[in-house]
Structure of Glutaredoxin:
Amino acid sequence: MEIILFEYPGCPYCRQAERIIKQLKEEHPEYQNIEITVIDEVEHPEIADQYQYYYTPCFFKDRTKLYEADPSWSEGEVKEKLNRMFQELAK
């Protein structure tokens, strides 16, 4: 299974998500089969412009938005939401 991750260079929320995803994949081996294609929205605006999102990081499967960051979320909330996303994908 493959999902797309849009990120922005220097984005602290993107770095946080990367760190949490690494933790989640260590804690849940079943998540290892989920491949993440990372798209830098600055390097590839022609791709990013085809998707509807405001905040990064933002995840899509096909054209369906799975997760979009919210700067007001705590790290615990981010981990919970990303874990929920991975649980659904791993089914």
Remarks:
- Residues 2-90 form a domain with the Glutaredoxin fold (CATH 3.40.30.10).
- Strands lie at 2-7, 35-40, 58-61, 64-68.
- The longest strand covers residues 2-7.
- The chain is about 40% helix and 25% strand.
